[in-house]
Amino acid sequence: MIPRSLLTSVALLATLGAATAQPAPFDMSPESNRVITPAPAPSADPSPAPVQPAAPAGFSRYLLPGANLRLVGEEAKQGVVVYLTAAQAAAPASLKFSLLNALVVAPEISTLRVRINQTEVATTPIASSSAATPIAIDVPAGTLRAGANIIEFRATQRHRTDCTVESTYQLWTEIDGKTAALTFTGDNVSTITQLADIGAVGVDQTGNTTLRLIAPDLADPTARAAILHLVQQIGLSLRTPKLSVVLADAPSDTPQAGVLDVAVMPATELPSSLQSAQAQASAGPLAAMLPMPSGANTLVVSGPTWDTIVRAGDAMLSAAPVSPERPRFDLPSPLPLMEANGSASLASLGVDRLEFNGRRYATQLQFELPADFYAYRYGELELVLDAAYSSDVLPGSEIDIYTNGQIASATPLLRTDGGMLKDTRIRIPMTNLRPGRNEATLAINLQTRSDAVCNAGWTGQAPARFVLSNNSYLRLPDYARATAVPDLQVLTGSAWPYGNDGAVPIVIGDDSDSLLAAMMFATRVATASGKVITFKAVAQAEVAPDANAILVMPLAAMSPLTLARSGVGSSASISAQSSDDALLDQFNTGQIEGPFSGVADWLRQTVGLDLADLRLVPAPDQPFVPPADAVVVSQVRQPEGGVWTVLTSTSPPALRTGTERLIDTPKWRAIGGRVSALPAGKDDVTVVAANNITVLTTDPLSPLNLRRVAANWFSGNILYFSLAIVLGALLLMFVTSRVLTKIGRPS
Amino acid sequence: MNKALTILIWIAISALVLALVTVPVSLQTHLVMGAILLGAMVVIKTLRLDGNWRLLLLTFGTIIVLRYAFWRTTSTLPPVEQWMDFIPGLILYLAEMYCILMLFLSLFVVVRPMPSHVSMRLPADEPVPTVDVFIPSYNEDYELLAGTLAAARDMDYPEDRFTVWLLDDGSTDAKRNHPDPEQAAAAQERHEQLQQLCEELGCRYLTRARNEHAKAGNLNNGLANSTGEFVAVFDADHAPARDFLQETVPFFGRDNQLFLVQTPHFFLNPDPLERNLRTFEVMPSENEMFYGVIQRGLDRWNAAFFCGSAALLRREALATNNGFSGKSITEDCETAIELHSRGWNSIYIDKPLVAGLQPVTFASFIGQRTRWAQGMMQILLFSFPLFKSGLSLPQRLCYLSSTLFWLFPIPRMIFLFAPFFYLFLDLQIFTASAGEFAAYTLTYVVVNLVMQNSLFGRWRWPWISELYEYIQSVHLLGALFSVARNPYKPSFKVTAKDESVETARLSELARPFYLIFLLLILAVAMTIYKIGAEPYQAEVTMVVGGWNIFNLILAGCALGVVSERREGWGSRRVAVERRCEVRGADGNWVKAGFINVSSGGVAVRMPNGAAGLGRGMPTTVRFTPLADNIGIDEMPVFIRSVTQENKGVIFGCRYMPERGQHYRLIADLIYANSGNWQVRQSARQVNIGIIRGTIRFLGIALYQTGRGLGYLLRFGSGKVLGK
Question: The pTM is what?
Answer without folding.
Answer: 0.87
